[in-house]
Write a structure and sequence with these properties.
This protein is 68% helix and 2% strand. With 321 residues, the protein is mainly α. A hairpin with a 5-residue loop joins strand 1 and strand 2. This is Histidine/lysine/arginine/ornithine transport system permease protein HisM.
C-alpha cells in the first residue's frame, strides 16, 4: 500500500517544463520593468517653476538697477571692505581657537578654581548677544576713561578702544566661549586609555595633551570649527555698529551716496557668498585629512558625487528607454 505522503500533490509545480518530444523547454526571459517615480518629476517641475518665478520677479523689477551691481562689485572701496571683513574674521577666529583650547583645558582641570572660572566665562559670553558685547567694548571709556597698566602702559581709553579693537575683542572673546565647548567635546572623545598609556611611558601631562590627545581630538574639533569660521564671516557684519569699515559698512556708504541701496546690498551678498564658498571647500578637504585612519569610510569629494549622480542618471534613462 502506498503511503499518502509519497504521492505528489496535484498542484505541485514541476521543476522543469518538458516538450512533447521529451526535451527541456528553457524558461522565459525575465523582463525587468523599472518603477516609475512620477512624484519626483512632479515635485521637481513644481520647484523649478517656483524658482523661475522668483528669479523672474527680481530680474524684471523696474526699481533694481542690475548694471550698478556689476559696476560696483569690484569697486576699490568694496574690495577694501571685503579685505577688512576677512582680516577681522581670521584674527577673531585665531583668538577664539587659542582661548577656546585654554578654556577647555581649564574646564577639564581637577582644580575647582580654574574649572569654575572657565565655566563662568562660557556662561557669560554664550548667554549675552554678540551685538551687546560689541557695544560694551566700544563704550568701555564710559567706565574706564584711562587705561592704566602701571609702568607698562597708560593711555586714554578712547584712543585704545578703536573700532578695530572693539570688533576684535567683541568677536574673538565671544567665539572663545563656543570654541571652548567644541574643544572640550573633542578632548573628551579621546579614549582615557590613551592618556593612561602615555603617562605609563613617562610623558608629562602637558606633553600628553600636546602629542597624544589633541592630535586625536582634531577629527572631532575640525568640522564644527570650520562651521564656526564660516559663521564668523557673516557675524562680522555686526561690527557695523562700532563703525568698523568692513564690507557691509563699505557697501552701505556707497548705497547711501549713490541711492543704490538694494543694489549695494546685493553686492555685499555676492562677496559674502564668495568668501563662505571658498572656505567651505577648504573645510571639506581639511575634514578629509583629519578623518584619515578612522573606521568610517571617507565621504566622496564633490567631483566624485557629480560623477556618481551622472552615472545613476544615465542608468535610469537607459532602463526607462
Amino acid at each position: 500500500m502506498t503511503d499518502k505522503f509519497d504521492k505528489e500533490p496535484a498542484d505541485a509545480t514541476p521543476s522543469a517544463a518538458v516538450s512533447k518530444d521529451g526535451g527541456a523547454v528553457p524558461p522565459e526571459a525575465i523582463k525587468a520593468i523599472p518603477v516609475r517615480h512620477y512624484g519626483r518629476w512632479v515635485s521637481g517641475v513644481v520647484v523649478l517653476a517656483l524658482v523661475a518665478l522668483l528669479v523672474n520677479a527680481f530680474a524684471t523689477a523696474e526699481k533694481i538697477q542690475w548694471q550698478a551691481v556689476g559696476d560696483y562689485v569690484f569697486d576699490s572701496t568694496v574690495l577694501a571692505g571685503a579685505g577688512r571683513t576677512l582680516l577681522i574674521s581670521v584674527l577673531a577666529m585665531v583668538m577664539g581657537v587659542v582661548l577656546g583650547v585654554i578654556l577647555a583645558v581649564m574646564r577639564l582641570s581637577k582644580n575647582p578654581v580654574t574649572s569654575w572660572v572657565a565655566w563662568i566665562y562660557i556662561w557669560f559670553f554664550r548667554g549675552t548677544p554678540v551685538y551687546v558685547q560689541l557695544l560694551l567694548w566700544f563704550n568701555l571709556a564710559l567706565i574706564f576713561p584711562v587705561l592704566n597698566l602701571g609702568p607698562i602702559y597708560k593711555d586714554e581709553m578712547v584712543d585704545v578702544m578703536t573700532p578695530f579693537m572693539a570688533a576684535l575683542l567683541g568677536l574673538g572673546l565671544n567665539e572663545a566661549a563656543y570654541m571652548a565647548e567644541i574643544c572640550r567635546a573633542g578632548l573628551m572623545a579621546v579614549d582615557e586609555g590613551q592618556t593612561e598609556a602615555s603617562h605609563a611611558l613617562g610623558m608629562s601631562h602637558a606633553k600628553t595633551l600636546r602629542r597624544i590627545v589633541i592630535p586625536q581630538a582634531m577629527r572631532v574639533i575640525v568640522p564644527p570649527t570650520g562651521n564656526e569660521f564660516i559663521n564668523m564671516l557673516k557675524t562680522s557684519s555686526l561690527v557695523y555698529a562700532v563703525t568698523y569699515n568692513e564690507l557691509l559698512r563699505a557697501t552701505s556708504t556707497i548705497g547711501s551716496t549713490s541711492y543704490a541701496v538694494m543694489e549695494m546690498l546685493f553686492v555685499a551678498c555676492i562677496w559674502y557668498l564668495v568668501m563662505t564658498s571658498v572656505f567651505s571647500v577648504g573645510q571639506y578637504y581639511l575634514e578629509r585629512r583629519y578623518a584619515r585612519g578612522s573606521t568610517r569610510n571617507l565621504p566622496p569629494t564633490p567631483w566624485q558625487k557629480i560623477k556618481v549622480n551622472m552615472m545613476a542618471f544615465s542608468r535610469e534613462r537607459g532602463s526607462s528607454v
